[in-house]
Design brief:
The structure holds three protein chains of three kinds.
Chain A (H helix, E strand, L loop, with lengths): L1 H38 L6 H22 L7 H23 L8 H23 L15 E2 L7 E2 H23 L1 H11 L1 H6 L4 H23 L14 H11 L4 H21 L2 H18 L12
Antiparallel strand pairs in A: 1-2
Helix pairs in contact in A: 1-5, 1-8, 1-9, 1-10, 2-3, 2-4, 2-8, 3-8, 5-6, 5-8, 6-8, 9-10, 9-11, 10-11
Chain B lengths: L2 H7 L1 H22 L2 H26 L7 H20 L15 H5 L15 H25 L4 H21 L1 H4 L10 E2 L2 E2 L3 H27 L1 H11 L1 H5 L5 H27 L9 H14 L4 H21 L1 H18 L3 H17 L8 H4 L19 H5 L3
Antiparallel strand pairs in B: 1-2
Helix pairs in contact in B: 1-2, 2-9, 3-9, 3-12, 3-13, 3-14, 4-6, 4-12, 6-12, 9-10, 9-12, 13-14, 14-15
Chain C lengths: L10 E10 L2 E11 L4 E5 L6 H9 L6 E6 L2 E2 L5 H7 L1 E4 L11 H7 L7 H5 L5 H13 L15 H14 L4 E5 L7 H14 L4 E5 L3 H7 L2 E6 L2 E6 L1 H5 L2 H8 L2
Parallel strand pairs in C: 3-8, 3-9, 6-7, 7-8
Antiparallel strand pairs in C: 1-2, 1-4, 4-5, 9-10
Helix pairs in contact in C: 3-5, 3-6, 5-6
Classes of the chains: A mainly alpha, B mainly alpha, C alpha/beta.
Chain lengths: ~300, ~400, ~250
Amino acid sequence: MEWLSEFGAIAAMQGFNGLSVFCVLLLMALGLAIIFGQMGVINMAHGEFLTVGAYTTYLVSVLTLKYLPELQPYYFFVAIVLSFVIAGALGWLAEWALISKLYHRPLDTLLATWGLSLVMQQAFRSIFGAREVSASMPDWLMGSFNPTDAIDIPRNGLFVMAVTLLLTAAIFFLLYRSRWGLQVRATVQNRVMSRAVGINTKKVDRMTFALGCGVAGVAGAAFTTIGSTGPTSGSLYIVDTFLVVVFGGAASLFGTIASAFSIAQTQSIAEFFISGSMAKVLTLSAVILILMLRPQGLFSIKVRK
Amino acid sequence: MNSTLDKFFGGKQGGIGLLVLAALILVVFPLALDSFRLNMVGKYLTYAFVAVGLVLCWGYGGILSLGQGIFFGLGGYCMAMFLKLEASDPESTKIQSTPGIPDFMDWNQITELPLFWQPFQSFGFTLLAVVAVPAILALVIGMAMFKRRVGDVYFSIVTQAIAAILTILIIGQQGLTGGVNGITDLKTLLGWDIRTDEAKIILYFVNAALLLGCILIGRFILASKLGRLLMAMRDKEERVRFSGYDVASFKIFVFCVAASFSAIGGAMFTLQVGFMSPSFVGIVPSIEMVIFAAVGGRMSLLGAVYGALLVNYGKTVFSESFPELWLYFMGGLFIAVVMYFPNGLAGLWHSHASKWLARLRLPSRRQPPAAAAQPAEQPPASGAGTIDAVPAKQLESTP
Amino acid sequence: MTGFQMPKPVLAIEGLTVSFDGFKAVDDLNLYLDRNEVRVVIGPNGAGKTTVLDLICGKTRATSGSIQFDGRELTKMKEFDIVRAGVGRKFQNPSIYENLSVFENLEMSYPAGRKVFGALFFKRSAEVIARVEEVAAEIGLAGQLHSEAGLLSHGQKQWLEIGMLLMQDPELLMLDEPVAGMSVSERAQTAELLKRISQGRSVLVIEHDMEFVKSIAHKVTVLHQGKVLAEGSMDAVQNNPKVIEVYLGH
């Protein structure tokens, strides 16, 4: 019986591992799912907005420790809100200065936002230095959760999971249950008509983009609990993130979730058998192959054009 | 009429532009620069191959590949494998536990030359592989993507992902590829030492000649009906398809041509610089190569060369004197080119310099109305105003 | 059906159905087209008219049913093979290459140099030039051969696209709203053009303009909700109570 419970523990932890990867992918992809999925804008600087959130969290942690050390256990909640606001505001600015001028040129948007990402990376380097930094963790995020002796689940992982869940729910509510979400979806479907019925599509675009960037900021804040932050932290994942969104079928939030889940599970199962880098090669190749068979992504509807 | 020659040289205007470029890289640079700087320009010019390819497939074909580093790298690696095998003869590797195989294999406990390395002992095979391996990969990617009508944005992202995969693969398989350091310590080509100043000058000229050759091929393609079809497809793909054309096959063709050009550039890079590494394969170098074409002008084959030269010169200057400013400059360049100069240097040339030149000699000759009427932005696809697209009107007038 | 008295139809559509997410845009459609016939398809918006053309030329794939053209099954063929088999299709909005000259637009549709290397080594022979000039004269653009297509009037662009189809010398010519946005005199000219070019081929037209339909149609098919509601001469169809109900009740 002993080996069975041990096996169960390994399976549980391995499963948890996969879930963590899933949460990380989903967190990164959520903001992009809004920007790319709903607006069709290719934002190559998406990873940098994530980094903005991470650095914001780091700054808040440093400042709290310096001026209000007794509040240190709770700084994280302030940090999440600030990350959202700052990343969102920067996104608003980027949409106003850059993206809004390029709506009909998707490939050019891609190049311009790549330029933006380079500028932002260098700005991070100038402000925070090239070395990676880490926010100080409050006690309640340290250590792990042990339902049995053999199972060891880190608390920060659980926290990231909770953030992912809440954020996904919030986005779902915003997009599908709020008036603003209705305007976004209307604009996506028919810009001219939306304008005709009195929707300020420019404002909707700007808010959507800002929201997507803000969500990336929250994701960045969550990431500080599981890793350190450097100037290029965000950009490392940009391609994976795009693949998650594209693979899911760009316009479907459910697709994004399902695709993040399947990619994460493939990756962590493959890692069990082969090296991490080869597992990544395998996963990415599989995604590309499936995309060739189903260019519209996994979840997309057939429409009359 | 010499219409075939016209196709290659792009009429009188295109011919002059080509002569100026040829004079610059074949005469001015070699005379004005010492062998170190000349070698550096030679390195920049290997990127120009990629940029010229991108003008064909992105500027004219509308296919933005963000993975040209794949092909540059594959071409470079094919050449590097041959040179590495030559440098790893049993005599000079006798201190290894397995003499006669590349040193990095020995360090990774590999005792036998892997199968896919063996054909690279032949120079003939290597020359073939430099072009064929990347072209076949481009063919496979192109078939899979274009036959399935993957959208242009998706295509860009997928090429980027493939570049990422290849980089991870090369770095991960250290024993087979030399890993993150790449393939280094290349010495001789068929016994000829490529590290001497003299060899570098000769290689520079070989490189320059090959580049001019690629430009001529590019011109021939653009001047043919295929060139017009590419532009027609970019603007009205459905119309072309329902005029009886297999749109995918044209995209595949131009993508393969761009890949082959990049690969030649990569092979010449290896020869001139003396190594090849995964840092020329991945996402970042690939997208940088796009900016060379964008700065030069995405619709101009000659502009691409100037773009590659200028951006890389800028990179060298910046990273020597103000390394921290380089990324700001590069990022700003991406944004500025896209937002304010979509046709790059070639566009600026047409909207400003050529008018100014025309004014200088105006009293003697009337400017042809077709060229004078070109708007500064988007040059018309008929190409009467672009530097090197053969003005279709000229062809028309030859019965 | 009255097929027994007719020669073999050029185009035979049988049981054609396409559904988008459960919505049947075309539902069990049957349609036969004879040689030298000009058929006009009318019907309210959303009746599936354009979808039928899309299905014939391969732009949309049928869910079930068959489209026989000259004894060849089109539903499984690639778009460019369908064109090469002799089906030409004009789109609803004039779809021409604005940046190319009228000559180049027409030349682009010349049925040679259609493969990669054929196009690479395509030569503008005297034959090509003669053919382009002939078609340009037919569509009334002989005087504008060397002007940029983007500078043409809307009506001329429509003619140019028809001319591009004529270059292919198709057996079946499909026109989606060819006179939309044309002036009265342009409409009359287009009607004349259609009468001339329908010699020796079949023409399938979608049109809303009833005056124009009357002037060109041999037979009219009325589509409604993806099905044939009525078929026959213009007069018969116009007096058909079902048709009247659909149009007035809509």
